[in-house]
Amino acid sequence: MLCVQMMATGKEVATLKLSEYPEMACVRALKRHLSSVCGCPRFKQRILRDGTILADDTKLEVLAEQTLQLVLLEFLPTTESEVQELLSAAANSDHAKLEALLQRPQDPDLGAEPPLLASCRDGHLEVVRLLLEAEADVNRHDRHLYTPLARASSSGHVEVVDLLLQTKVDKNQAGRTGWTPLSLASADGHAEVVRQLLKAGVDTNAGNRTGRTPLAWACSHGHAEVVRLLLESKVEPDRPNLSGWTPAAFASTRGHVGVLRLLLEARVHADTEDVSGRTPLLWASTHGHAEVVCLLLEARADKDKVSHKGKSALARAARKGHSEVVRHLLDAKAAAGDALLSALSSGHAEVVRMLLDATFSESFERDTKRQRTSHTLVDCSGCTGSCRQAAVCTLLYGVSESGIAACLQDALWQVSKPAWVWYADLRVVAVCLFVFIVLSLFQWRRRIQQSRALELPAPHEEVPS
User: Fold this and answer.
1) Residues 26-71: pLDDT tens digits?
2) DSSP assignment of 425-442
3) In this structure, how many other beta carbons lie within 10 angstroms of the beta carbon of residue 132?
4) Which CATH architecture has domain 138-231?
């Protein structure tokens, strides 16, 4: 039997039968066992036999049937150079030097950025193991409020994350902007880290400062495996951020077909609106993601839904010139609205041809006719075909590009000018009016001075009495 007593009080700490502990081969292993008994890390323990300190690599088999003394130490005062020495040893993954420094014993949490934070970020597993054994603070954060778990999750260090989760770490502690370890791992696509965090029971719906959840981050960056793992957990697939954007909206905007398919299989709502009234279909049409548009149309998304500004998916695609998206929407019998006008104002001849050649409902044909006849034709025989709507003029009026006789100069284009165009016109008028007023004032002042000069006597002329 091996007996360990407190040197100061003689109180028995542990009595061990070495045959029952085959893994306990040296003094280092004995100290690790005593850490769970006395609550003190092995670096602050000193084990003595007959007043002599035993080295950590001393074999316990030679100490059987003896009584050992245990002394618990406090951290020694540390200079700035010693702190930097510890930080350098951790950054360079120098295990031997780090072990020697911790044996002083020295506080492992000193420094502006403690060694555990940097080691978790860089993935130095053995350094992290030593620092955790020295009871470094696992919830100590940096200036961005990121913890060691957040650093390891963001960098995708699976073994480091697994080691941290075995401690009393706060699994849901968020950074300054609200990013949790799960959000960081999801945004960067570290599927194995996400699996470990989900197994540890982290909050899957915790949003950042803008309300964006881990699922939304994974959908935005197109990490299909992470999305699948999150959907299999207790996650809200339709949870929006503060702007009303759902995970489906993020996937549609970025054109991630595989991710969107997983969301639709999880029964998400395809027509959820954001604060501007835009649905995933409107976002996909705006950015020209044809495959996403097809997938949403197959999921029976509302093809005629308009935003708060009155723009439909077809009108947005037509204005941007996304011909393939326009074709899919026309095949789905989407309502016309102002799609033709949008294509005309942007000069997309191919989209205009598609809109004119397609078979529409009676209401669309009436709208199309009204839009076509509302344009004012002017004689511009000198046009060389280099104006904005030259290709559209050629399409609508059948004139060759070498000599366009009629150009699209319509009132509707003037009405649909952007606000900055009208603002620029008003500024020109205001400047001209200001210059006119200033010149008029100068001229009026000059005339008054001339009239006064005529009334005054000459310099040497006598004034009659």
Assistant:
1) 888 888 888 888 889 999 999 998 889 989 888 887 777 788 889 9
2) HHHHHHHHHHHHHHHHHH
3) 20
4) Alpha Horseshoe (1.25)
